[in-house]
Amino acid sequence: MADGTGGIEDLGGVKGLAELDFASVTPEEFAQIVKGLSGKEIAEIAKDGELRARVLAEVFTRMERQFKPDTAGSLKALIRWKVTGSGDEETVYETDIADGTCTVRAGRSDADPRVTLILADAEFLKLVSGNASPVTMFMMRKVKIAGDVALAAGLTRYFDIPKA
Fold it and tell me: Under a CB-based contact definition with an 8 Å cutoff, are residues 164 and 34 in contact?
């Protein structure tokens, strides 16, 4: 990024982020970008339906690649993610961990999840980019958890999450 800090200013603000080819950004660069975002900038992303959808799709697509099967071992769990946007907007994805693989799908299946995590756009981006602790987020009520709280608390260990 232009000045090496990796912040959104290097990209030309939210407009620059909208034009970014996410496939060319490493997980570490993404973590730096998220770290540099203000709450106002994340709110702008959340209000731009197309950009929000692109960011969420890229994050969830990367989950399959960032999955650590050796750490997961024999874990079998369906995790439902409800990412809430501005207004009543809610985007649902599911990560299905079984047999040493992680499969991601957009939308809600008929299966019962082992855990459901409900969080706003800003908290979701901070969590998946290594810019926030899931336990701290839970304690501060930034993430709501339904189901297996212990699984939710340790979820980040099953993915190679960069540190910003």
Answer: yes
